[in-house]
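@channel anyone free to eyeball this complex?
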Amino acid sequence: MSAESGRPEALVASLFRHESGRLVAALTRLFGPHNLQLAEDVVQEALETALQAWKFRLPNNPRAWLGKVARNRALDVIRRGAVERRFATDYHEQLASEWSLATTVDESLAEASTAENQLRMMLTVCQPQMSEETQVTLILKFLCGFASSEIAAAFLCTEETIDKRLQRGRSVLRQMESLAPAALADAEDSRLGAVLRALYLLFNEGYHGSHPSMPTRVVLCEEAMRLCAFLTEGMDGGAPRAHALMALMCFHFSRVAGRIDSDGIYLPLAQQDRAVWDRALMERGMAHLNHSARGPELSALHLEAGIACQHCLAPSLAETDWNAILGLYDLLYERNPSPVIAINRALARAYAGNPQGALRDAVDLAEEPALAHYPFYWAARGEIHARANQREAAHECYQRAATLARNPAEERAFLRNAAVHHIQP
Amino acid sequence: MAKFIYVFRGGAFLEKGLSATAMQDHLKLWGAWMGELAKQGHQPAGEAVHEGGRTIRGKNKVVTDGPYAELKDLVTGNLAIQAASLDEAAKLALGCPIYIYDGSVEVRPVAQMG
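replying in thread with the prediction:
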C-alpha cells in the first residue's frame, strides 16, 4: 500500500509465475541443470518469503525484492555446497572463489541477463531425445512457472501424466552440467527449430485447443508469445524463423476476440467482425514479418505467417487475396505434403474461384487416415461443397464434422453451418 | 474510534509448496482486504514477521532459538486498525483471507492511555 494514496498497489499479472521462470533460469545457469531441483527450491523459498512479507503492502519494486531474496539464498547455498557440490561446469570456478562469487551471482540475476537466461533454458529443455509433449511440459513448468496440476488442466490430462513427463525430462536434465549455449551455429540450427516447434505447439494448444469448456486459452497463447520474444530479442537480431513464428502468432492472436460469439460458438471467418481485430498486434506482426524476410531463408513458418498476414490485411472475406494465399499453400505443400495442408489448400482454391477443382482435391483426401476423424477436414469439405452449390452434401459434411468436434464451441459452430445448408424436403 | 490489534497466527506462509499462481491469487485477496480497510478509514498499519527468532523466558532469562508454538499457532504478523468497537473490529476481521489456509486472527483492544 502506498503511503500517499492509502490504496494497495496491484500486483502485476502473473508476477509470481514469470519471476519463478526468470529466477529458475538464472539460478540453473549457475547451479547447472543437474542441480535444477536446488534452483527450484531456492526460488520457491523466495516466493514463499514474499507471500509472507507482502501481505500488508507491496515493496516498491517487487521484482527487485524477489531477486535480492533469491540472490542471498543462492549465496548461502553456494557457500555451503562449495566443497561437496559441483555447480555448472562453466561457472564452477567463479562460484568457488569468494573473490568472484557475488558478482557472478549478481550478473546472472541481473535484468540484462534475463533474455539470454530464458533462451538458454528453452534450448536446454528442448532436448531431441525428449518428445515434443515433454518439451512443452518442461517449458510450462520451468519457464512459465505453472504447477503440474495447472499444466494438466491446460492439456486436459491427468496430473500423473504431467508428473511422468516431468520425471522423464528431469532425468535427462540431470545428465547436463551446464545450460545450452545461447550462440546458435546458424539460423538453421536444429536446436532453435525444436524450441520454435515447442512454442508453436504451445500457442496452438491455446488457440485451437482441444479443451471441452474453454475453446481458447489465452494464457497459453500469451506465454508462447512472451517466450518467443526472448528469441527475437535475445539472439543477435533474432533468427528469421523466430520472427516468422512471432509474426504468425501476432496475426492469429490479433483475431482472437472475433473468433467466438457471445454464445461461445466459433464464428466462421466470413461472419467475424473485423472491427474487433487488434490492429496494434497486427502492426507488430507486420514488423516481425519484415524482420523474418532478412536472409535467404523461407521456412514453413514464413509461409504460414504470410497466409495469416493476408487474412489480416483483407477488409472482408470476399476481398481477400485468395490467389496469394493459394500460392503460399502451394509452396507450403511442396515443403511438407501433409493432408492437413492439402485440405487447407483445397479450401483456398475454392475461395479463389475454383470450387470444382477444390472439390476434386477434397474428395481425393477422404482416403487419408489422418483426416478421417479430423473435424476440420469435414468442415472444410462442407464449405467447398457449398461453394460448388452442392448444399445437401455440404450439410452432410458439416453434420459429420459436428460428430467429431472436440468441444461444444466447435460442435455448435459445425451444426449451425449444417443447418444453413440443410434443404427442407 | 478506538485502536485494535489483530494478531495473525498460521496461514498460507506455513503451507509449503504452493504454486506461483496460488500464491499470487492469495496475495491478491490480502491486497483487496487491506484496500477495503484503508478505504473505509480504518487506517491499517501492520508488519509481517518471518519464521524463526528467539524466545527469552523466566527469571534466568533463558534464551531459546525460535518461538515454541505449534506451527499453526505461530504468530505470522500483526496489524493495528481503528474501529468503533470490538464488535466492529471482529466483524472486519472476518474479511481476512488467512482462514483459507487455516490461520487465525486474534482481535484485541489496545489499552487507552487516557
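from a first look: Chain B has two helices and six strands.
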